Amino acid sequence: MNTILNSLVSGGLELENKPQAIFTQKMTKNYGSNRGINELDLAVHEGEVFGFLGPNGAGKTTTIRLLLNLIMPTSGYASIYGLDSQRDSVKIKKLIGYLPGEFSLYPNLTGAQTLKYFANLRKGVDWNYVIQLAERLELDLNKKFRQYSHGNKQKVGIIQALMHHPQLLIVDEPTTGLDPLNQLEFYKLVREVRDQGGTVFLSSHIMEEVEKTCDRIAIIREGKLVKLGNIAELLNLKNHYLEIAFVDSPPVEIFRALPGVESADLVQGGDAHLLRCVVRPEALNTVIKKAALYEVTDFNSRESSLEEFFLGYYRQPEKVG
Amino acid sequence: MLGNVFMKTLRDYRYQILGWGLGLFSLLLVQVQAYINFFQGPDREKLIENYKQTAESFSFFFGKVYDVETLGGYIHYEIMIYLPVLLGIFALLAGSGIIRGEEDKGSLDLLLTMPHSRITVILQKWAAIAVAIAAISAFGWLGLLIGVANAKGKLDTGAALLAFLNVTLVGLVFGSLALFFAQFMPSRKAAAGWVGGFLAATYMMNSIAQTFESLRWLRNFSPFYYYELSKPMAHSVGTNLWAILLLAAVPIPLLIAAVLMYFKRDHGNVFHLFNNGKVKVVNNGPTKVALPKGFWLSNTFSFGLKASLAGIFIWGLGMATYVLLIMSVFNGMRDGMLAILKTDLYRNFGFGVLPSNESLLDLLVFLFLLPLCAAYAITQIASWTSEENNGRLELMLSLPEPRWRLLVARFLVTLCALTLTVVLVGVFFVLSTQLFNVPVNAINTVGAFIGLWVVSVLILAVGFVLAAFGSGWSVAACGVLVVISFVISLLGAALKLPDWVIDLSIFHQYGKPLVNGLDWTLQIGLLGLSILFVVIGGWRFGHRDLEK
Question: What is the mean pLDDT of chain B?
Fold first, then answer.
């Protein structure tokens, strides 16, 4: 895990110097009360896998649809590889592959016919690569679209997004309906896009997916960006959950007052007095030293999961910034 | 409205009930007023006689006429003859949609996880469409009653109620039949298509069998035959209770069969007769994926055109069959009909008075081809807007093509489909004039079909420009415009509408090119207007948000 993180961190630093694949400046889409996005500033660098997270209705799909010029911004600006998202929309679409969160295709066409049609419209698609992708995702292309399961329909969408080797892959909830094996195959495909110099913009709810695939993430809530950062750095920011068993009841106020302690509560656990604290990484040493002043019978520490970390941003308005 | 499956289904159809119902309501109001305007004047006897003669001339298709001198008989002849077809179309769309349509969309999956049996679900949904059909009929009945009260006319309210009950029962037959078909059809469209074909075939069969003695036995298989046995508003015929009871009984076995099949089959699959309702699974092992070939897959235009082929043949051949039918009986009824064209009634309706084959064919053929081509144009607009409404357009617009080009490609597809349909009907028209020895002016014939094409192109263009402003409501808006335009053209003179209002009707602008020749300047103007609409549509579509 550490090796992966280190490589991601170093990779992330290199990314800073790369040109921007996606750039938005004060991009706003106003749908009325509590909807749309508000002055979104975003920069996604070429060659990175960028995770875009947020609760339902936060504005993730709206952002994607604005980038693709499917909807027009109320104000602000967006560009992809330096091209204006509205003026140069056609040029941009030559560079991108897109998988919508929800889509529908032609029920009476087979998967092969559907993909061939899209390949013809895109031009220059290597059919052997389409077959190769279908084999990797275990998709039978001879079936009609209406006969596919939800997961297999999603695979058709994934293949059409990847078949022309896009420079920028924009995917909205890409692994919805895929089984775990096919999810892993999709993550491999994403890494291949990045390894070949491409950029991936991934909107997802699945924290594990984000952790496995993304270099940087942005969290959006109620149309506003609330967190943007390198995923490795964010992992280092995760709090520790401590559970310390004392013979006698310790003065809980002392622990609460320590800098870096988010919360501290005392509960009765059998014969022992259990102190449960949420502690920021930099305060861990101070808390342990303070606890050592009292008679300790047991000590447990665990890191918060990435999910708990993200959920904090999903829920708490005061963490905006 | 969301308390149970019945109420939810009824809620799903609320706008359709209102739309169809208010349309019917207005139609009945207008027709009552038209009757009063026509027949309550000083020339009443003469006009009624003319009208009777006309109606008799159409009896080869619409059957014998009864009591047209009374308001009830007139309403039966003007509305109730084709009303079961209209309501049947609504019913078959609803009947095919309540189970198979929801399976296609995927919404039934969740509904079936609720603590309800499949039987409860299907019965509640069927009951809801039965109420919806009855509600639409009730709107018509109310329109009639209010029209009569307003015009201080005379009508047997109970007989009118029975007449609308009769229509409702025909609707229920087709709704139940569509529900039945949907159990062994792979999609809603397929079920609706087959039942729609059955509806058209049985209506035509019943009509044609009235003229041809040898085909009369076929009428027994047509719901329209049993419908026509009762004419409650025409007192000299009255009500055939047995026919009404039969129509009421037919939906029951259809419903039972549909319920049993639905109960037996796999959700999302079709009913299979010889495998306990389940589809046989045949595993042939992995198959090699071949490179899909076919020119139609190469671009949006060829792809769209291929998808339109079935519609071109269905609509084109349907209209061509009608043309053939008219031509086959034309010489037999020509003299009687030519005399009728000279009467005051036709002057009031705004028809030509020249006693010629062209005048007669203008009335018998083009009066019907015009709204049919307009309806076909609207189905083409609906096909375009459905791309956006069902979410397919999102992927299409992620491709490197400018939006306007996609819109123009789709417009060209619909234009070609329309052109092929009109050409198909035109070819049948010309061939049948030769086959049945009906001489007509060749140049005017070409002009009449070009005019027909131009009117349809303008309707297409209006539909596309409306769809460019919003896909959700554009088809309905275009449909309303077309209906209003047709009613103005047909009844504008009788209703004494101002000339400038009548001039706004595209059907009025079509004129009578088969009789008078085509006004080429007008056609060029209308085509120019169509191009303008498409340009505005292309611009607007390029600058608006995708709805879904």
Answer: 86
- For A54, left (φ over 0), alpha (ψ -120 to 50), or beta? left
Judged by a CB distance cut-off of 8 A, whether residue A94 touches chain B is yes
CB-based contact B392 A105, cutoff 8 Å: yes
CB neighbour list of residue B77: distance below 8 Å, 6 or more residues apart:
B55, B62, B65, B68
**Residues of chain A neighbouring B539 (CB-CB closer than 8 A):** none
Place of tokens 């006689």: B49
| Yes or no, beta carbons of B287 and A140 under 8 Å apart | yes
Low-confidence ranges of chain A (pLDDT < 70): 1-18, 33-34, 235-237, 304-306, 312, 315-321
CB contact under 8 A, A107 and B400: no
Q: Where are the alpha helices (DSSP H) in chain A?
A: 2-15, 60-67, 89-95, 111-122, 127-136, 150-162, 180-195, 207-213, 231-236, 252-257, 284-291, 306-315
Closest partner residue to A120 (CB to CB) among B286, B290, B297 is B297
- Do residue A104 and residue B303 have CB atoms under 8 angstroms apart? no
Task: Write out pLDDT tens, residues B376-411.
Answer: 998 889 888 888 877 888 888 989 889 988 989 999
Would you say B98 and B129 are in contact if contact means Cβ atoms under 8 Å apart? Answer: yes
What six digits make up the tokens of B186?
């792979």
Residue of B518, B263, B534 lying closest to B412 (CA atoms): B534
- Residue B169 phi/psi, 5-degree rounding, is -65, -40
Q: Does B283 touch chain A (CB under 8 A)?
A: no
**Is the CB of A71 less than 8 angstroms away from the CB of B187?**
no
Please say if the pLDDT value at position B518 is more than 80: yes
For B95-135, give the DSSP string: HHIIIIIHHHHTHHHHHTTSS--HHHHHHHHHHHHHHHHHH
For every residue of A239-265, DSSP letters joined together read: -EEEEEEESS---HHHHHHSTTEEEEE
Q: Tell me what pLDDT residue B461 has.
A: 95
The listed range with the strongest mean pLDDT (B344-348, B381-385, B445-449) is B445-449
Q: How confident is the model at residue B108 (pLDDT cuts 50, 70, 90)?
A: confident
Give the span between the Cα atoms of A171 and A157, in whole angstroms: 10
Question: Coil, helix or strand for B349?
Answer: helix
Q: In chain A, which residues have their Cβ closer than 8 Å to the Cβ of B187?
A: 107-108, 146
Q: pLDDT tens digits for B156-182? A: 999 999 999 999 999 999 999 999 999
B234: left (phi over 0), alpha (psi -120 to 50) or beta: beta
Report which of residues B232 and B64 the model is more confident about.
B232
Give A135-148 as a 3 state SS string: HHCCCCCCCEHHHC
Identify the CA nearest to A228 among candidates A214, A216, A218. Answer: A218
Residue of higher predicted confidence among B496 and A245: A245
